[in-house]
Specification:
Monomer. One of its GO terms (cellular component) is mitochondrial intermembrane space. The protein is of the alpha/beta class and about 270 residues long. It contains eleven helices and seven strands. The chain has a domain of about 160 residues: 3-Layer(aba) Sandwich (Rossmann fold). β5 and β6 form a beta hairpin. α1 packs across α3. The protein is globular, with a radius of gyration of 19 Å. The site of BIS(adenosine)-5'-pentaphosphate has 33 residues, from α3, α4, α5, β6 and α10.
């Protein structure tokens, strides 16, 4: 028999992930007594917050719970950097200086995903986009064209002073985007991903000097996006200095989704998958 390849393993992981997401969706509907996925259907949201606020920590949980796609523009740009594309080369310079890639490029990147990514059919969570008022306007016009307006703009609020330790201690598994923290969320084995055992890295922009620039870019260019969504009545602010579990509960509160899924009573545990 031919040896199993890495790509076959990745396909299998992808399949298991989709199955899990589907089961979460079914569990959710079962618990809430919904016959139609009304909460899921309306799940179109963005997470706004400074570097290290916890966007990348919370977004995958939202994605899994509601079976929607998670589009992280920072990850999309880092994929271009890894592939050494012309955009990746240009983006790396900007990212390492703590600046922003051009609005047109970012708007088109998101438009392309929303148009073509089948995982986004149930809804989406945007992490790191929009980062300027021009990007927010671009998003609004593409959603208006589909008559599928944004439902929630969640701001993760936290003082800058708390972000230095979060960012300088962060460790990343590049292939999956999983993130850890040396102190707050350490991997089981030093510098190794819990799932694959592959090495963890530190992002090149995760140092105290670049963080200062990223924070000033955030306050100058992204903070006005909060005002933009406040006037549209879909903004909600959350205290992101709490521990991740409390942040998660606050997010569920914004969705009016107070029921938590018990892992021991879920379908997956009943069929022996967790
Ligand atoms: P991007 O990758 O989006 O970076 P960012 O916005 O700076 O956000 P981070 O990923 O640093 O933080 P996070 O909020 O996800 O924190 P995390 O959950 O990992 O963008 C990178 C660059 O790409 C930008 O600077 C820009 O150049 C460019 N770019 C991207 N999008 C763009 C756009 N739309 N337009 C133009 N340019 C764009 O948490 C951080 C750490 O803290 C982790 O180690 C985590 O374990 C820990 N942690 C999380 N929550 C908690 C908690 N509650 N308590 C304790 N520790 C916690």
């Amino acid at each position: 028999m031919a040896p199993i390849t890495d790509s076959q393993i990745d396909d299998l992981k992808d399949l298991v992930h989709k199955l899990e997401a589907r089961v979460h969706d079914l569990e959710h509907r079962l618990e809430s007594g919904e016959t139609k996925p009304s909460l899921v259907e309306s799940m179109r949201l963005i997470l706004i917050g400074p570097p290290g606020a916890g966007k990348g920590t919370q977004a995958p949980r939202i994605k899994d719970r509601y079976c929607i796609c998670h589009l992280a523009t920072g990850d999309m740009l880092r994929a271009q950097v890894a592939k050494k594309t012309p955009l990746g080369r240009e983006a790396k310079k900007i990212m390492d200086q703590g600046g922003l890639v051009s609005d047109d490029i970012m708007i088109n990147m998101i438009k392309n995903e929303l148009d073509t990514n089948r995982e986004c059919e149930n809804g989406f969570i945007l992490d790191g986009f929009p980062r300027t008022v021009a990007q927010a306007e671009g998003l609004d016009s593409m959603l208006q064209a589909e008559s599928k307006p944004l439902k929630h703009a969640i701001e993760l609020q936290i003082d800058d002073g708390l972000l230095v330790s979060r960012i300088t201690g962060r460790l990343i598994h590049p292939a999956s985007g999983r993130s850890y923290h040396k102190v707050f969320n350490p991997p089981k084995e030093t510098m190794k991903d819990d799932v694959t055992g592959e090495p963890l890295i530190q992002r090149t922009d995760d140092n105290a000097e670049t963080l200062k620039k990223r924070l000033s870019t955030y306050h100058e260019q992204t903070a006005p996006v909060v005002g933009y969504y406040k006037t549209r009545g879909i903004w909600a602010g959350i205290d992101a200095s709490q521990d991740p579990e409390h942040v998660w509960k606050s997010i569920l509160g914004v969705f009016g989704d107070s029921k938590t899924t018990s892992s021991s009573s879920g379908i997956l545990s009943k069929i022996g998958l967790r």
